[in-house]
Description:
Layout: E1 3-4, H1 7-16, E2 20-23, H2 27-32, E3 39-40, H3 46-53, E4 61-64, H4 72-82, E5 88-91, H5 94-100
Parallel strand pairs: 1-5, 2-3, 2-4, 4-5
Amino acid sequence: MADTIDRHDLEREIAAGAVTVVETLREQHFADGHLPGAIHIHFEAIGEKAPALLPDKDAAIVTYCTNTACRNSEAAANKLTAMGYVNVRKYAEGKQDWQDAGLPLVTS
């Protein structure tokens, strides 16, 4: 099971440029709005796309999806860990929590 990060810590790490944030939903959801600086890798494509998009296995990475009911971020974080990434956490509350806190999403 992946370690978690809360919204406050994630917001700080994004502002500091200290983390790579990965949205694990379908591409249309990403285009409709994503966390600042996030990249898109659908959870089913982690094995295929992570090596090119996330070349540093020591970098801080946070996966997220919609909310605690959505399991995409957990699946993605577990897959990344199995692939040898050593600093992976999930933002379990996801995009819904971010928006509920009044924080902006970025549109493509």
